[in-house]
Amino acid sequence: MNKHGTIRVGIGGWTYAPWRNNFYPTKLVQRRELEYASRQLRAIEINGTFYGAQKPATYAKWAAETPDGFVFSLKAPRYITEGKRLADTGKGIGGFIHGGLVEMGDRLGPILWQLPPSRRFDANDVAAFLDALPRELNGHPLRHVLEVRHPSFACAPYVELARARGVPTVFTDSTEYPSLADLTGDFAYARLMRSVDGIPTGYAPDALDLWATRARAWAAGEDIADLPHAAAVQPRGKPRDVFVFFISAAKHRNPAAAMALQSRVDSTS
Known about the structure:
Elements lengths: L6 E6 L6 H4 L10 H5 L5 E4 L9 H9 L6 E5 L2 H4 L8 H8 L10 E7 L8 H10 L3 E2 L2 E2 L2 E4 L8 H10 L5 E3 L13 E6 L12 H15 L21 E6 L7 H15 L1
Parallel strand pairs: 1-2, 1-10, 2-3, 3-4, 4-7, 8-9, 9-10
Antiparallel strand pairs: 5-6
Helix pairs in contact: 6-7, 8-9
C-alpha cells in the first residue's frame, strides 16, 4: 500500500487575461490555453459550471485537451445549492451528474458543492442533501466535497454528520468564511485565498514550504493540529489524495503559486 496519497495542486479556471502576461507563452492562441495549463498543473477547478451545467460535448472537449493523470474539479451549479431547501435538490443533482459528466472519463475529479454564506447549518437538511449525492457514475466512483460558508457549520455535530456520510469538507483559507480543517472524508481539499501581488509566487517561500508540509501530512493520513478545527483532531489514518487550489486574491499570481507548491511537494515525495 502506498504510504502517501496523490497531491495535486492547481488553480481556478484557465481563462484569465492577465495570465497571458505571466503564465501563458507569448502569442499562445486562446483556444490552446487549457492544453498548455493542464501540462503545467495537476488539476484545475472549473468555476463555469457553477453558473450553469455544460453540454456533454463541452465536457468531452475539455477532457480531450488534457494529458493522462490530469483531473478537473467541477463546481456544481449554484441553482442546486442556493435554493430554499437542500433536501429538495435531488432532481437538480441528478440532472447535473447525468447531464454529460460521464464524457470526462478519468479526468473527472471532485465535484465541489459550495453552499452560500446565508445557509445556516440544519442537520436534517444537510443530511438529506448528502444522502442524495450519487456515489458512482456508470460504475465509476464519484468524489464529492462540500464547502460551507456560514459560521454555524463550525461545530462538532456538522463534522460528525459529514464523517458519517464520508464527504470531505473544504478547508477554505479565507478571512471571510469559516475555515474547517476537520477531515470528514477520504481525501483532503483546500482552497487557498491569500496570494498577494508583491510576491512573484503569490505566497512567500516559507508559506509555500509550510503548505507543502501540510499537504504531505494530509497525504500520509495525518490530521493537522495547527489548523482550525470544529471537533477533536483525529489520529493518523489511511493515506489520502490531496487537492490544493489557489483561488481569487492576487489571481494573476496563482499559477506561479501552484507550480511552486507542486514543485516543493514533488521534490520531497
